[in-house]
Give the backbone structure.
Amino acid sequence: MTASNDGGLGRMADPRIDMYLDGLLSGPELQAFESELAGSPELRRQMDLQERIDGGLRELFVYRAPEAATVGRIGPGPAEAAPAPSRGLFMRGGRRWMAIAAVLALLVGSWAAYINITTPGFDKVITLGEVYRDFNSVDFVCENDAQFAKAIKDNFGQALLLVAPPGTKLLGWNYPGKDPALNAYTGTVISEKTLVLLTEVDGRSVKVVIDRTRAERGRQMGVPANAGFNKFRKEVGDLVLYELTSLDRPMLLDGFYDPDRSAPPAAPR
Amino acid sequence: MFQANHRALWCIAAAITRDSVGAHDVVQEAAVIALGKLHEFDPSTSFTAWCGQIVRYSALNERRRGGRSRAISTDPTILAANSPAANGPADVSMFSGALAAALETLEETARACLLMRTVMDMTYKQIAEALGVPEGTAMSHVHRSRQALRARLESAATKEVTP
């Protein structure tokens, strides 16, 4: 989410290299690219660098196929036929396999139960109350309207702009679902990619939670009556917006619009 | 079926753990969890994507626990000492260190897509199925990741050739 279209990648962002590597260039495009590749040291250098990166990745991440027994046969389909029992020294074939299966089932069951108890929950559900109270860090700041629109479009496929009332200070974006230490999504508000716009209106904290409307389906977005803040909801195109505020009316929701579909609304207030 | 998807699942784990061996352990752990939760699987949905989520959560839990002692370091000095390329030319280790550090800047899904495409030679269709994302999104992740890595590693590559 940066100002430039290539995300600040500059000349390394020539998309033809990636299309070429994926075999997506054909006909005149392919000929033109290969001709340029032969005559352009810069393009050749980029290709060499990419090949070196690919080689480096294969060196860093070495995959070894598992033995069948170590992964086990897990799947929703019909169970594979059990191996034919051989005559054991101390037990007859069928009985020996039953004993092994029983021990394995016991071990696997115990291990699964142990893991269920000792590992934290998978996706952490973050309530709107928690968003309002706890998520105040500015993870990203937009420098201008273009960045603002792009930040939302990159996340949700639809741009959004805001005509804010006087006295509004846009502080930045918070990604509540993202763990910066892991650089991975580990929590869910509406979805894991929910964005929160942090603002101050007349010096009071107002947050706008944004996500896709379809991600909201089936989710409970309620707020207790004694939560200490108010929640207002609005849909703009394919996006749903929640304004969380201590004020008794929404100050920002009516100022949001999709610049690709509509003209800016009149300044609120 | 879990085994048939092992390559993709390993990539999902490796994208989070950044560690080949640790990723195998995570997939093993996820296999056990999947076995215990098999009754929760909805047969009308993708089994691969379901397993992928379990692997993903297991890998995230592994990272939260601090990872295994053999986790890849992004410190170029440690990498230089530990990498398979340690016996080769110094610039190879430096480049590997810079590459590992650059990988850290990519998002988890992008890293998984890149590993599936580059290390496993999976098609975009296969990647999309494994991650439960549209094919175009998988391709976009790979292309943008490559471009980001080239941009970040350009200076590392340039330093190597500068006396």
